[in-house]
Design brief:
Rossmann fold; 5 helices; about 20% strand; globular
């Protein structure tokens, strides 16, 4: 059975690029274009990894992941590994993100092979 990855990002180019990259590696990819969409999807689906943009309109990626992890914990389900991606250096948000113990925190533009390697490692 293919590993399942949720991409949470509001940028169409990032969504398309990551989706193609991951699907070529035989991963099943679902996409949420907002924090609200991601929360609704995770209510219905299980994932092996979340790749989330830090900055998005509405609920940012860090708040989204915190809500997802809290909901999973309340349901006695294990946490999902997370890779945060961002185009902005923001020490405050980065520190907040690191409290969620992500697998990685990667800056855009990122190396596709590095992201793939981190994703594979996270889902072992």
């Amino acid at each position: 059975m293919a590993k399942r990855i949720l991409i949470v990002d509001d940028e169409e180019l990032i969504i398309k690029t990551l989706s193609k990259l991951l699907e070529r590696q035989k991963y099943e990819v679902l996409v949420a274009k907002s924090g609200q969409d991601a929360l609704a999807i995770v209510e219905e689906e299980d994932f092996d990894l979340i790749i989330a943009d830090v900055r998005m309109p509405g609920i940012n990626g860090v708040e989204t992941v915190r809500s997802i992890q809290d909901a999973l914990e309340a349901k006695k389900r294990g946490k999902i590994p997370v890779i945060f991606i961002t185009g902005y250096a923001d020490d405050k948000i980065e520190e907040e993100a690191k409290t969620l113990m992500p697998v990685d925190y990667i800056y855009k533009p990122f190396d596709m092979q590095e992201l793939l390697d981190r994703a594979k490692e996270a889902m072992r």
